[in-house]
Amino acid sequence: MEVCPKACSCVALGYKDPPEISVERQVVFSGEGQEAALVCIVHGEAQPEVMWFKDTMQIDQTDRMITEARGARHTLIIRKVHAMDFGNFSCVADNQLGKSRKSIMLTGKPNVATFRSAPISQWRDKYNISWTVDCFTPIEEYKLYYKPIFSSQDQGHQMYGPKLRSPFIPDQPPSPAYDTFNYHAGYGNAIHWGKNEWRDILLAAVPQSKHYTQGMSYVIRNLDPDQQYEAKVQSR
Predict the structure, then answer these.
(1) Domain 20-107 maps to which CATH number in 2.60.40.1640, 2.60.40.10, 1.10.10.10, 3.30.470.20?
(2) What is this structure's pTM?
């Protein structure tokens, strides 16, 4: 008896993903009357359609808002930014495999401060700290924060007296909520300094309306030697 061989039919199964989006910058800094460019990079196996949104409203191309596409790079150019333009934008890529979205924030607020001063003070009891901030509009004021850095064995230790020292270690800006500096009544009005407490100083900015990069320096006095500090700056 002759037996027929089994027939086998094979089907290749494949899974394709929706478009992939990455953004060049999650936060774009600009100013009123300036130009802003929001960029997203889009990849997809099936050619996706790319759309831009401001909040939930799709953006139509105008003389002031222009979209460009060069390969995978998609750009929304905003000419002469208006105050109403600041906020959240979305880049949306859509094809038959699905839809993807990435957000970009356009802001007129100052950029993060960059410290320019030397890490070690040339004086024993004071430190000249300086910084610059990129901003398209004049900065009105700065708030400088600083505190000592304690070693691990000082965990939870509270220090009394004006224990302010140098050198400084620059850091990123703190949260918008201002930290407090507590004063305790007693002999000599001693200062109670907790481990995680910041001292802050409000400084009026020097007007520099025509300069994108603005900055300031300030001498912090009454410091003790041989102690590191960290410093932070808020701008507005």
Answers:
(1) 2.60.40.10
(2) 0.63
